[in-house]
Predict the structure.
Amino acid sequence: MRTIEPDSVPTDRLLLVPLRPGHADEMATVLSDPGLHAFTGGAPETAEALRARYERWAAGSPDPAESWCNWVIRLRDADRAAGTVQATVTADDRGAIAEIAWVVGTPWQRCGIATEAARGLVSWLAQQGVHTVVAHIHPDHRASAAVAAAAGLAPTGEWQDGEVRWRLALG
């Protein structure tokens, strides 16, 4: 499998920008609501902790068969960060498969930002030759399930670590 590097991904209202360590200060504010961790656990991280994480992510996976693609969701009109999307791309016997996730800061929720970002991400992954997209969603997280459904994914009935596996077969 070839390594996949994230590019900027434009959508109608958003620009998905490859995540860099320099985004940590702004993202610490965007992700500061403890409520964002209700379904995933943990707590908001400091800018320093995010910077260290983003440095690891920007360096890429130590496994050459795995690509880490991470973006900041930027609002075009306001030129500000509103969240992140990510895809971990690996390979199976048919080619590239991506596991995706998203998080949108509380002030920008219920505005369609996560849906638009997820759709943009899925479209970009299809252009990279990914044949299947999966996401793992807590069964009580209705908003995230709605985003997955709007991006074309459907629940499979499979479970992993207490979350439902959603899947979309591309082209």
Observations:
- The chain has a mean pLDDT of 95.
- Residues 131 and 144 are 22 Å apart (CA to CA).
- The radius of gyration is 15 Å.
